[in-house]
Design a protein that fits this description.
alpha/beta
Length: 238
């Protein structure tokens, strides 16, 4: 068995990735596939934490800009959507024997543990998967920024940014056939060119802490394992 390139990783999953072809909500087949890939990675001895979005249920920014909702309220609603997704992923993981803890930035003791950095690290050391929900607990911050923050806090080796495409392109590859893929991209170039893979706050935080990001397609089974083993999958941001 090839030795993993990374010991501790943060997997960032967007809410949209969970809806599959349904267009809304959670696709059970997609959730099961992600859970099996996480189990496979754990079998390599890798410690894995997950930051999960809520866009398949509710997007705070969209509601604020198109529906006229108060941005703070809309963002809190989006945070609650991440809890639904986090609990669904926990259920999918534990049904296949992966011990899991959900930690939330907003206290809701009946559902999840409060986020405590040292406790999260201890869970990882005990080979439990840890799912972070409710973002940072503050409005105006995305779950991308949460991934960068949590990865820095728990001393992760890399952020695995799971998307519906196989890397970063010059244009949206789903809309532009002529879009060209980047094999590697520097943080500063991502910011200057406005490559919309993560928000600027998240990219800047990763740049300040020299935390690499790998953008890849999570819908291709086995991709998480390939990334962990250091194979050329997706785009590396460094």
């Amino acid at each position: 068995m090839t030795k993993p390139k990374y010991k501790r990783v943060v997997l960032k999953i967007s809410g949209e990735a969970l809806q599959g072809k349904k267009g809304y909500g959670i696709d059970p087949d997609v959730m099961s596939s992600i859970a099996l890939q996480i189990q496979e990675v754990q079998g390599l001895g890798v410690e894995i934490a997950v930051v999960i979005g809520g866009g398949n249920i509710f997007r705070g920014l969209k509601a604020a800009t198109t529906k006229g909702m108060d941005r703070g309220i809309a963002d809190y609603m989006g945070m609650l959507a991440t809890v639904i997704n986090g609990l669904a992923l926990q259920d999918a993981l534990e049904r296949i024997g992966v011990f899991t803890r959900v930690q939330t930035a907003i206290h809701m003791q009946q559902l999840a543990e409060p986020y405590i950095r040292r406790r999260a690290i201890r869970h990882l050391e005990k080979k439990r998967a840890v799912i972070f929900v409710c973002g940072t607990g503050n409005p105006y911050f995305t779950t991308d920024t949460t991934a960068a923050l949590r990865a820095t806090e728990i001393d992760a080796d890399v952020i695995l940014k799971a998307t519906k495409v196989d890397g970063i392109y010059t244009k949206d590859p789903l809309k532009n056939r002529g879009a060209k893929k980047y094999a590697r991209a520097r943080y500063i170039d991502v910011l200057k060119k406005g490559l919309k893979i993560m928000d600027a706050t998240a990219i800047s935080l990763c740049m300040d802490n020299n935390l690499p990001i790998i953008v890849f397609n999570i819908n291709k089974k086995g991709n998480i394992k390939k990334v962990i083993l250091g194979k050329k999958v997706g785009t590396l941001v460094y």
